[in-house]
Design brief:
11 strands, Serine Threonine Protein Phosphatase 5, Tetratricopeptide repeat, transmembrane, Amidase domain-containing protein, 11-stranded mixed beta sheet, 2 domains, 21 helices, Amidase signature (AS) enzymes, membrane, 51% helix, alpha/beta, single chain
Length: 586
């Protein structure tokens, strides 16, 4: 009896171990050749080099891949669907952009996986399998151009082409940690590419190296040589960074420090994009759909307008095939193809025109808008949030800016957060593609230096949160100060100083509030603290000079105003104060 019981225990133990091993095997994704990025390998070889003294082909020695929406002579374009492939013939002509790249010296080595019918931005495909994200294997690679992003991230090719309608290049670029460029709408010809939603479609490309990104761009955009033009304005969209699940400071400080180092602090600015768009795009009010009271009602309305255009134009292009073939199309596609009224489509087209004009007015020829590319880290494979309406709408809020305005945008990797890639995006006006490519070429190395410095500094998340909370307290203090609520402002500035006592502005601002209460000694002490931290803070010298004048320390006050004038020779406040004191006390 005992031996029988023991035997049964061993059997149960063995079954338990086998079950654990089987579960572990299921959880581990099997390794696939090329990370599952390709559906077909091919070779399109460039022409021979021209004889000297002519220049070599601009893309010599580079190889690239193309998303499976680009036609290649003799190959069936499957458009992310086996059923599409079965019902279409092989292409008789190669896509114009592919031919241009090959003629430019690059070799095309294969066609890559895209989301079914290039509809989604997740990167999952039931027909060909989901490509494995090299930067985060347990996370989605992003779509629709998932395979192209993966091929670059894995180092298989130097660059690759993708389709970006509602984020199909920018999102996988962010999730896989590579550079991704969406050009201005309609500046790259789309001959020989299956359309998704023509008014939103753009041919984009991925690269790990900014010089490769720029070389490809110069060829596709047919740009002649010109000197690099420096940006004069960088606008940080603060409200957009509030949407991000990654701490805003983690994303923005790398950009701000890089910009300050290369171009100076004076080019940095901030914008509340929600308020700006609300004042400039009246047609979005017709698309509020019950979100009029939302903090991001205009961005949500812009996202909704993009989604309307996306599904409306997709239906125009492909509903006839879906109805005739009746394929087992993914539910996320069919479920999004309900009818919408003509007025909704017209409002969405109006929004496109208005948002292009609005961003053009903000950015002009020399401005860059900085936003998060996506909400945060890439979602896990098969995660529930991928089918969440909130997730898709909020992600679309960010991608809709370039899709609807037709502006150019580049995704810039910023290292990792929680072991996953994170990024920001830079946006320039429609037609500012050369300017944006030149800017990323100039700033990229410095951004990566700042990313490395941030990683090495190992700043704790608690400290980062304290710094962010200090900034929030300062902003509240500024609001109270403008309303002349001096004591309330002092309390907020004091809170900011407790959270981070190494910022001169906090002391200088509190000094200004103390002056409002006629507390001159406290104002003088705060200004001295500010100057100890930053000897070049002009406002602290002006405020300490004012406090010392009121305390009767006239010589010291003149010294402070004079120092402010040395730092800022055109400062009228300092000049007037010095003249006044010299007349009163010659």
């Amino acid at each position: 009896m005992a031996s029988s019981t023991a035997a049964n225990l061993w059997v149960l133990l063995g079954l338990g171990i086998a079950g654990v091993l089987l579960a572990a095997k299921r959880l581990r994704r099997p390794a696939r050749p090329d990370n599952g990025a390709f559906i077909a390998r091919l070779e399109l070889l460039p022409p021979p080099q021209p004889p000297p003294p002519q220049a070599r082909h601009p893309l010599t020695r580079l190889c690239f891949a193309i998303a499976d929406a680009f036609h290649v002579t003799g190959y069936i374009t499957s458009f992310g669907s086996l059923e599409w492939a079965k019902t279409h013939d092989a292409a008789t002509q190669t896509s114009l952009v592919v031919s241009s790249l090959v003629d430019g010296g690059a070799m095309c080595v294969g066609k890559t996986v895209i989301d079914e019918m290039a509809f989604s931005i997740h990167g999952e495909n039931k027909h060909f399998g989901t490509p494995t994200n090299p930067a985060a294997p347990d996370r989605v690679p992003g779509g629709c151009s998932s395979g192209s992003a993966v091929a670059v991230a894995a180092g298989i090719v130097d660059f690759s082409l993708g389709i970006d309608t509602i984020g199909g290049v920018r999102v996988p670029g962010s999730y896989c940690g590579v550079l991704a460029f969406r050009p201005s709408h309609a500046v790259v010809p789309n001959n020989g590419v299956i359309p998704v939603a023509p008014s939103l479609d753009a041919i984009g490309w991925f690269a790990r190296d900014p010089s490769v990104l720029r070389r490809v761009g110069h060829l596709l955009l047919r740009l002649p040589y010109a000197d690099i033009r420096q940006p004069r304005h960088f606008y940080i969209a603060d409200d957009c960074f509030e949407m991000s699940k990654v701490h805003a400071r983690r994303l923005t400080q790398v950009v701000t420090k890089s910009v300050e180092k290369l171009f100076g602090r004076q080019v940095l600015g901030h914008v509340n994009l929600e308020n700006y768009l609300a004042s400039r795009i009246p047609s979005l009010r017709n698309n509020s759909n019950g979100h009029g009271d939302s903090k991001f009602s205009s961005l949500l309305a812009l996202s909704r307008a993009m989604q309307f255009l996306h599904k409306h134009e997709f239906k125009d292009q492909h509903m006839e095939w879906i109805n005739s073939v009746k394929p087992a199309v993914d539910a996320c596609i069919v479920g999004n193809l309900s009818d919408d009224g003509e007025s909704t489509i017209n409002n969405s087209h109006d929004a496109r025109k208005e948002v292009r004009a609005a961003l053009g007015a903000l950015l002009k020829d020399d401005g860059i808008l900085v936003i998060p590319t996506v909400l945060g880290c890439p979602p896990k494979l098969n995660a529930r949030e991928l089918s969440s309406q909130d997730y898709n709408v909020q992600t679309s809020c960010l991608t809709s800016l370039a899709s609807m305005s037709g502006c150019c945008q580049v995704t810039v990797p910023l290292g990792t957060h929680d072991k996953c890639p994170v990024s920001v995006s830079l946006i320039a006006r429609h037609g500012g593609d050369r300017f944006l490519l030149d800017t990323i070429q100039t700033i990229y190395a410095t951004i990566q230096e700042q990313v490395d410095a941030l990683a090495k500094s190992n700043v704790s998340s608690k400290q980062a949160m304290s710094e962010e909370a200090a900034e929030a307290a300062k902003e509240k203090g500024n609001i109270a100060f403008k309303e002349k609520q001096w004591q309330k402002a002092i309390n907020f500035y004091t809170e900011a100083i407790k959270l981070n006592n190494k910022v001169a502005t906090y002391y200088s601002n509190r000094a200004a509030a103390f002056l409002g209460l006629a507390s001159y000694r406290q104002a003088e002490a705060d200004c001295t603290s500010a100057i100890d931290i930053d000897p070049k803070i002009v406002k602290a010298y002006l405020r300490r000079g004012t406090a010392r004048e009121m305390l009767g320390y006239y010589k010291e006050a003149v010294d402070d105003f004079s120092h402010a004038l040395v730092l800022e020779p055109m400062n009228k406040t300092a000049g007037v104060a010095i003249n006044r004191l010299k007349k009163l006390f010659p």
